User: Which sequence fits this backbone?
């Protein structure tokens, strides 16, 4: 199916664009009154994720409301751990909670590599519905968590400032850790290929907890599995978003992916200086900056666009939207990107 | 009082040492069976912090058990927010909790700058007791939180992966934020001067949540207040430990302090390359590495020592000890540092 507004795909693959495309991590969800109304009526976050029609509706909501250039599927990176038979819950106000965590070889032996649609069908179905409903208006963005980040949740069982249970396993039982990471990797490759078959035009890999690792651990337990995924997914462009590892940007640049996502602590100029111009970049406004007043948001967004240059850039935040971000401020960010004129043209 | 083992002070101030001194963040506390026994008998963490004789006992425990080269006072960075009249609690298994947080100008108006001993006397008294008991054996290390990190706790009210309430205030109400940061700064300067009068031979500033800030916010709301503290504390050497801001090492190098603490994501060689040799460095083994086996710990510690070079280095971890670290592994780290032979000598 031909995509009418393909700015996102062109920017991702280094083809010239007449303006910078824009979307936001967590654009589908709590920031929108439409979502909050739907959730009040239909139940929990997981209920919405697990019912394809509702997940499709939530995915489309920001497209209508914000006019962004990509539709990221409403789902969760933990779909994969659940499909591997490790359940999770989302507890209101507290976040992720796993009733059971992975601590031993026996725990790993009870998990299964995802190699059929059971356990992931609801998200795959949601992508098909979104694809049909958008009818080629804009690209559909699929996503998955990176193996280390999923590993961190599966071992810790909840959010953490340090994810020290996972890091402990990397040091104490590296072979066991590699086994679990490999299982997650294979599951993720299968999952992403199904997302692409269902209609995802581009996919993003989230390594949200990469920054907890020492450089040695990152290069040994995180990066090789990201590479494996990138090598297996050749159908569509890939965005790799590894948070908190600005020091490793040169290594990330060697991945066979098209786009690197930057968090809000990384300087676009510094990154360009270090990696050259071969890859496209995505990011990276501080999500909390959208709490400021519109004049300030406009100025900061313009500065960000200047810093990235005019091509090979997908405008986004440096992390997910905060749930209570004022909608007008989000619109101000999107509109500023869309109205931005390339000074050189 | 003359200090018999002054390796730590010499390394901090760039004077040649015959071996690398070593201490560890959180060496006083839960890692030691002696501490756990005392706490089971005497009550909560705060009870121990608030009774000078007990805080002194806990401070001394690792000196006897681990033979480290510095005695860091058993206390908490939140002593200052409580002394400013914002109480905190430590909830078992959950961490820090503030019954009331700072959100408005009215909240700030109810706080007071610390300018007398009320509210800090128990820690000051503990330092005096430690100083007397050590009788010059090794230096006493005082400490305080940096203004941004205290601000982050006082606005968020608990631990957080993002501290977005604090960042929100920086963007929405920068003048109000500056007012609170200035109050914390003045309180901290008073507190540190009292620590030094009581016997602290060196002090460390912890900016544990620096890494949550964009570079612009860090340079605007964190660094200037650290600078102000460093400019006011001229009596003893200062260690500045700003976690998660490897990108800002050049800016940190311009602070009027003697030592920069590195977290476990920073490469010592890279830091030396960027800032030259004027400052001493502290750090930076991944605390989770102490879960590995002794052979691995020994190798990694030796590699770390090689990476820092032989002088102007205070061996430490890149963050606080994890509570369940095996004691033998901690000893292996300390002993490896103490037995390390300078290859060039």
Assistant:
């Amino acid at each position: 199916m031909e995509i009418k507004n393909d700015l996102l795909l062109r920017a991702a693959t280094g083809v010239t664009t007449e303006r910078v495309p824009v979307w936001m991590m967590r654009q589908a969800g709590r920031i929108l009154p439409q979502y909050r109304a739907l959730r009040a009526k239909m139940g929990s976050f997981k209920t919405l994720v697990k019912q394809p029609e509702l997940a499709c509706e939530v995915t489309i909501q920001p497209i209508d409301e914000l006019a962004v250039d990509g539709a990221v599927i409403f789902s969760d990176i933990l779909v994969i751990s659940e499909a591997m038979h490790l359940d999770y819950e989302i507890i209101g106000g507290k976040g992720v909670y796993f009733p059971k965590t992975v601590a031993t070889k026996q725990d790993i032996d009870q998990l299964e590599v995802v190699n059929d649609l059971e356990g992931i069908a609801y998200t795959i179905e949601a992508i098909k519905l979104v694809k049909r409903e958008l009818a080629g208006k804009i690209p559909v963005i699929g996503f998955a968590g990176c193996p280390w980040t999923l590993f961190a949740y599966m071992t810790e069982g909840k959010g953490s400032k340090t994810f020290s249970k996972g890091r402990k396993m990397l040091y104490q039982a590296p072979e066991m850790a590699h086994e679990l990471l490999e299982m997650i990797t294979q599951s993720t490759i299968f999952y992403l290929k199904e997302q692409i078959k269902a209609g995802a035009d581009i996919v993003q890999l989230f390594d949200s907890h990469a920054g907890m690792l020492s450089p040695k651990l990152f290069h040994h337990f995180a990066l090789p599995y990201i590479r494996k995924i990138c090598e297996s997914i050749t159908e569509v462009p890939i965005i790799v978003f590894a948070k908190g590892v600005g020091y490793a940007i040169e290594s990330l640049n060697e991945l066979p992916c098209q786009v690197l996502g930057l968090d809000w602590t990384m300087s676009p100029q510094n990154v360009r200086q270090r990696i050259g111009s071969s890859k496209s970049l995505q990011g990276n406004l501080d999500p909390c900056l959208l709490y400021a007043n519109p004049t300030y948001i406009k100025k900061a967004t313009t500065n960000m666009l200047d810093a990235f240059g005019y091509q090979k850039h997908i405008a986004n935040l440096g992390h997910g939207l905060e749930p209570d971000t004022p909608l007008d401020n989000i619109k101000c960010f999107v509109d500023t990107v869309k109205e931005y004129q390339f000074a050189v043209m």
In short: The interface with chain B takes residues 159-162, 164, 167-168, 170-172, 211, 213-215, 217, 244-247, 264-267, 270, 286-289, 291-293, 296, 318-319, 322 of chain A (CB under 8 Å). Residues 174-198 of chain A form the longest helix (25 residues). Chain A has 15 helices and nine strands. Strands of chain A lie at 71-72, 89-91, 95-97, 140-145, 202-207, 238-242, 259-261, 280-285, 313-317.
